[in-house]
Amino acid sequence: MVEQLAVRMGVAGRYTDIHKMLAEVKPDVVHIATPPDSHVFLATTALRAGCHVFVEKPFALTETEARKITDCAAEVGRRVCVNYLYNYEPPALELERLMAVRALGEVVHLDTQYGYNLAGDYGLAVMSDPDHWVHRLPGKLFHNVLDHVLAKVMMHIEDDCEVQVMSFRRRAASGDPVLDALHDELRFMLRSQNVTVSGTVSAHGKPSAHTLKVVGSRDSVELDYTARTLVHSANWAQPASVGRLFPAFVQARQFWRNGWRNVGLFRRHEYHYFQCMRVLLNRFYDAVENQGADPIPAQHILRVCRVIDLLVDGMEARA
């Protein structure tokens, strides 16, 4: 695979030994996009060699392993980040702005939904190969996507968290024990002090959802990461049944504005599929050059890993 990628991308240097690569290339930053059971070794090795590190999710298999990476980064004075790219989609950046000015008031509840297409390219790679690394994860399929589900809400909850979880396999049995051990539907509820979170991961709901609803004490918003829209919830303020005529038009106007904003982003070449990753990487490299804070604080990385641990424990307890 290293050889294939190097030929395709025209990369002169290609290595299968990280120590040799670090010694010869002496990079400032190392990007790690390998299966997560290799992340601790690769990340800590690169950090101790003086590199900053950007890690693909899942950051690590457990919170304990994640802490080895973040502690190492703190010890050697280097930056570490994880690819929570969807926090930098256009609607997520708008939510960031709204939260900064407390436009929604206090957060009361968040609902986060994520659809996974088992018939898509990634899904077929997992379902056609019992030896795929996803099957080795403690939480299997969910472990590979829960970062996307949880990263959006971690800044709104604390470290102490109550968890309720239910997971199951909805598709018919295949006869392969490895494939059949992989659940494809997940529901969970979190409570952290006065904030609650409900979450859904579904491989069967259509269309595949990728949404977040934030319920605030002053206002509420709904984000669609696929359509790249953010709309405020309808507020029925007019009297009687006549008042119910207006909210649909108010929300339609919001969608219209979202659409034209997206056209503007497209015209400025800021709308490609992984635009959100470009924003995240720009912020990470700004932090590397000491021109900004870490875009994903270590405490948020560890909090995501801790909640995943709790969800995996809950799934195993119900198995």
TrEMBL record:
<protein>
    <submittedName>
        <fullName>Putative dehydrogenase</fullName>
    </submittedName>
</protein>
<feature type="domain" description="Gfo/Idh/MocA-like oxidoreductase N-terminal">
    <location>
        <begin position="3"/>
        <end position="84"/>
    </location>
</feature>
<keyword id="KW-0560">Oxidoreductase</keyword>
<dbReference type="InterPro" id="IPR036291">
    <property type="entry name" value="NAD(P)-bd_dom_sf"/>
</dbReference>
<dbReference type="InterPro" id="IPR000683">
    <property type="entry name" value="Gfo/Idh/MocA-like_OxRdtase_N"/>
</dbReference>
<dbReference type="GO" id="GO:0016491">
    <property type="term" value="F:oxidoreductase activity"/>
</dbReference>
<dbReference type="Pfam" id="PF01408">
    <property type="entry name" value="GFO_IDH_MocA"/>
</dbReference>
<dbReference type="GO" id="GO:0000166">
    <property type="term" value="F:nucleotide binding"/>
</dbReference>
<dbReference type="InterPro" id="IPR050463">
    <property type="entry name" value="Gfo/Idh/MocA_oxidrdct_glycsds"/>
</dbReference>
